[in-house]
Design brief:
heterodimer; A: five-stranded mixed sheet; two-stranded parallel sheet; 27% strand; elongated; B: 16 helices; 13% strand
């Protein structure tokens, strides 16, 4: 299904019948635009956008779907844990990405370049840290829990 | 009076009288926000010129909590996602874990049928809360009592099976927790028999009401393009003509065995979002009727290990929840606890469109348009 057009540096691999591709972050917006606009793909629907903190890198995962062709694709971007970690925003491709990227920024601390309004969304503005990072350890609440809680 | 008019006219000529812009907090503690949702609305007179969502008042860090619990221990948390449709949230989660373990084909038939009956009952209950609350937001108290009447019967059915009305903790990885009690089927039969009459009553008291129609028709319409762009799912998308229902188009479980329609509308205004949900109640009743007829005897849970250790891998699984697609993205590292659990909640994405939808509306129309989106805060804030 995927032709050469979306990229020389794109790795395609399929496992458990779920097709997924790995894209370098500098080419992400181009690839996504192509996936949305090309009549063969027509990925007009952003199903989900999330991230995982692996020991070796951070991965942003995009689940895409085409309403017309009814096919699905997973796109992954791996970024090293440098400071700050960033990926380009895909809000120009799907508006649905706006809140989902804000959520990833809030909980995982990944910066989405060119996002129109990148603020915390679920946590308070003065919260320190990004809870879904593996180095963010849950602390028992000394005030409410007798036995160590959590 | 004449003097006053003269003064106003002179002021207008000089440009010294202008409508002052006003910022108001809509919520977080207000019944029409259906929870602890807050929007900062900028008003010019009675018209909204800007709307900014503020979420997170109910954030409990569920995704992080899941990482320190086993797969089974996380099931009860799902009832706290969408507390109006706990069964559906649990079903979505257990289906994701089953997919991750690769045992989707081992679920006993009876368990699948029970899941369908429970989920569709819960969908009706959820839509009835929507019906009740959209009426209440327009100060219609009587429809509220009508909607909650049948919802309570449904919650009684859930209680007699699962032991709890709203947080059922009933779905299990590989099946369901308990078999249907003897008194369940007669009670369900009784409910299904009165349902057509009740639906007529709902329409009679609210749908045909002139005030209701004036406040919802052609108010806050959403085009199909906007729906796709904003990623809206469920009844909100179908009201705008996006004809997509996971139960029909990507059938999970045994949904491919049932005959039902997927109601759609074209305009996508508040009225369409309302009527699509009312029609979905009828379709859910149809599905339950078929499931009741075909339900076989047999085991209710597959043989799954006590300690669930899915193989290393990842999966994305979603079901048609009463508010849209509820998806789970699970990553397993082979240990008894998930490496990562991500919950894609439909209301979280659906509520984002309100920022754009509210602009240009009257304040009181925005309240109704917000109610027509049918969001629930437990699921938005997770």
């Amino acid at each position: 299904m995927l032709n050469v057009k979306i990229g020389a540096q794109t790795e395609v691999f399929a496992d458990n019948t779920e097709l997924s591709i790995k894209v370098p972050r500098l080419r992400l917006v181009d690839v996504m635009m192509e996936l949305r606009n090309h009549p063969d793909y027509k990925m007009d629907f952003l199903v989900d956008l999330t991230s995982v903190d692996y020991p070796e890198n951070l991965t942003v995962i995009y689940h895409l779907m085409s309403m017309q062709h009814r096919h699905q694709l997973t796109v992954k971007v791996e970024i090293s844990k440098e400071n700050p970690c960033w990926v380009p925003s895909v809000t120009a491709v799907w508006k649905a990405a706006q809140v989902l990227e804000r959520e990833v920024f809030d909980l995982m601390g990944i910066i989405f370049n060119d996002h129109p309004d990148l603020r915390r969304i679920l946590l308070a503005d003065d919260f320190v840290g990004h809870p879904l990072r593996k180095d963010f350890v849950l602390q028992p609440d000394k005030n409410t829990s007798q036995d160590g809680g959590v | 009076m004449q003097d006053m008019c003269n003064v106003l006219e002179t002021c207008e000529e000089k440009g010294t009288i202008r409508t002052q812009e006003m910022n108001i907090n809509y919520g977080p503690q207000h019944p029409s926000t259906h929870g602890v949702y807050r929007a900062v609305l900028t008003l010019e007179g009675e018209y909204i010129t800007k709307c900014v969502n503020h979420l997170g008042y109910l954030h409990r860090g569920m995704e992080k909590l899941a990482e320190s619990r086993t797969y089974t221990q996380f099931i009860p948390y799902n009832g706290r996602l969408d507390y109006l449709a706990g069964m559906l949230c649990e079903e979505s989660y257990v289906r994701a874990v089953e997919k991750l373990m690769g045992i989707t084909d081992q679920i006993p038939e009876r368990a699948e049928y029970i899941r369908v009956i429970m989920s569709e009952l819960q969908r009706i209950a959820s839509h009835l809360v929507f019906y009740a609350s959209i009426a209440l937001d327009m100060a219609g108290f009587t429809p509220w009592t009508y909607g909650f009447r049948e919802r309570d019967t449904i919650l009684d059915l859930i209680e007699m099976t699962a032991g709890n009305r709203m947080m059922p903790n009933y779905m299990r990885i590989g099946g369901v927790a308990a078999d249907l009690p003897d008194e369940f089927m007669p009670a369900l039969r009784k409910l299904l028999d009165i349902m057509p009459k009740c639906i007529d009553e709902y329409h009679g008291i609210l749908t045909g009401n002139e005030i209701f129609q004036a406040r919802t028709k052609r108010v806050a319409p959403l085009s199909a393009e906007k729906v796709l762009d904003y990623g809206l799912t469920g009844p909100n998308a179908r009201a705008s003509g996006v004809d997509f229902d996971l139960r029909r188009d990507e059938p999970y479980g045994i949904y491919d065995r049932f005959k039902f329609n997927v109601p759609t509308r074209q305009t996508g205004d508040s009225f369409d979002r309302y009527i699509v949900r009312m029609e979905e109640i009828v379709e859910s009743v149809k599905i339950i009727e078929q499931a009741m007829k075909d339900i076989p005897e047999g085991p209710i849970i597959a043989k799954v290990p006590k300690l669930i250790k899915p193989p290393v891998g990842e999966t994305y699984s979603r079901i048609e929840h009463s508010k849209g697609h509820l998806g789970f993205y699970l990553v397993s590292d082979g240990s008894p606890k998930p490496y990562r659990t991500h919950i894609y909640s439909p209301s979280f994405v659906n509520v984002a469109v309100f920022e754009e939808m509210a602009v240009g509306l009257h304040l009181q129309d925005a309240v109704v348009a917000f109610a027509s989106l049918d969001i629930v805060l437990g699921e938005i804030d997770r």
